[in-house]
Amino acid sequence: MKPFTRLSGLVCPIDRSNVDTDAIIPKQFLKSIARSGYGPYLFDEWRYTDHGEPGMDCTHRPKKPDFVLNQPRYQGAQILLARENFGCGSSREHAPWAIENYGFRVIIAPSFADIFFANTYKNGVLPIVAASDVVDRLFQECAASEGYSLDVDLAAQTVTSPSGFSFKFDITPQRKHCLANGLDEIGLTLVHADEIRAFEARSKSAQPWFFA
Amino acid sequence: MAGKTLYDKLWDSHVVRQEDDGTCLLYIDRHLVHEVTSPQAFEGLRLTGRKPWRKDSIVAVADHNTPTNHWDRGIEDPVAKCQVDTLDSNIKEFGALVYFPFKHANQGIIHVIAPENGATLPGMTVVCGDSHTATHGAFAALAHGIGTSEVEHVLATQTLIQKKSKTMLITVDGQLAPCVSAKDVALAIIGKIGTAGGTGYCIEFAGSAIRDLSMEGRMTVCNLTIEAGARAGIIAADDTTVAYLKGRLHAPKGADWERAVAHWQTLHSDADAVFDTVVALRAEDIEPQVTWGTSPEQVLAVGGKVPNPADESDPAKRASIVRALQYMGLSAGTPLTEIAIDKVFIGSCTNSRIEDLRAAAAVAKGKKIAANVKLALVVPGSGMVKRQAEAEGLDKIFTEAGFEWREPGCSMCLAMNADRLTAGERCASTSNRNFEGRQGPGGRTHLVSPAMAAAAAVAGHFVDIRHA
Ligand code: SF4
Predict the structure, then answer these.
(1) Relative to the CA of B348, which ligand 1 atom is closest?
(2) What is the ipTM score, two decimals?
């Protein structure tokens, strides 16, 4: 997992509430055996006019010009600005995979679906819950200025806009530690690698047949 | 201080470290891998540049997607083929202790091949991205299913982050009647405690009727623990366990064998151990079972009648009965023995071992399947089971009776390959889940023991094998 400490990134607004995991990555992509490569299919049905299938080359697929991800001003965006209950639906980890694969590192919304919220951390994406009026303000500022970007500082737990407007966000110490150090759960466990090895050595001398 | 339960012993001997909130890092001895739940986990390793912590803990096989006939044609479904090929290349890249690819002589269902190769041993922790991993608890091993993220976690760290479960003791004392099998015991238990009865527990099965079961029977009982809501079911090690393991491929040998057996004798709950919940059944009360609904708890003794929703006072349960009857195409009050079937499936990790095939063959011997039975499949659990059955002439008994004798795999247990029910078809099945659509969209599944399935194939409807 890539560490996350501080990011100044372009913002892409998705002005809808209840964006579900099926919209984020439609179910046909679950047949895939991959964990990466979902970026081109992020929001597939909203993004293209044809029907997407896993493995399709998306470079020449017909795009829906109105959809934000297709607009030139949002190319290269790393911060997704969203509305209530973002990520509702199934527990599929493909949704945060697609978001991360596309290049987003931060999602700001008034609320998130539970499982999706937990899954984003596991995949190095920071979900930020902001008050509705704050989110409204960010949407307005974003609409008003092309190239709108935000500064997200994990250590200080702040988001600052070019207008100087700033707000704080919450995160548990453990999640903060994981993100800041690029530790997924596996990374966190591997901090105890010596203890695992010591356990293993004891087990091996007691029951060598477990290791045959 | 009270003694330890078997679960306590298994748990305590695998704790690498414990956090203040009770969360433990548990060491995993055996990691079973199949093609459906492993691809993203392996790719996760690749993306992060990690290696499996201990490749010699891995036992891998392709089972869910593999066809059970026409092996010469390979795998025709491209999605299935892709998953199987991916497992192949992942194991080539990362390694394993045991790997039986598609068409290997010892290929079979993961929960059949690990024990028969001595890869599941008493005292181990065993995990697999598959809920029926509970099967391996029959060997006094702590075994349960995990999700894909956890598969990756085990691959990379050889551990799992876990919190301890509560303990439940289920005793079955007395002697089972002739024709009553381990499957009937398991279904009767689920009928008694319900599909959520074991939620949050590790269940230990004990009592004289459990001790009298063969290892195959014990695996059947533990396999169905998950259908009772518990992630793990365990049975103490005893002479039956030791006798089963002796001489198996990965079982300890020589001096190690003696040491191992001495240790295995300690793998039981202490006499004064205290369980959070205790449930007792009398073996004599257990009759051959048939499920009538779409949940394993919707089960009755074969002499029973399809229940009437009007008799159920709980509105939620009443609604589920109504829905189940509608899906199953059954009317209240119908005797179970009058339900005619279209297909029969003898197989799955619940009931595809040699003893299961012997029990079914004993019933089918010299008979023919009924005219209304369109297809009766016998799918051995592994290549080893298949060869043993053929050496005993069981395949002939089946084929002469009109059954199809197939290659090993999961097959119609979950219908990921070509073996499946079509909408409305009714099947007597020795598998473990009668959920809507489990054996094919619209398919209707009745869970029974191997002998009951064979008897239904011959009669064309369910029969009480005690009076057949
Ligand atoms: S036989 Fe059925 S339950 Fe067992 S592993 Fe295969 S699909 Fe799962």
Answers:
(1) 1
(2) 0.93
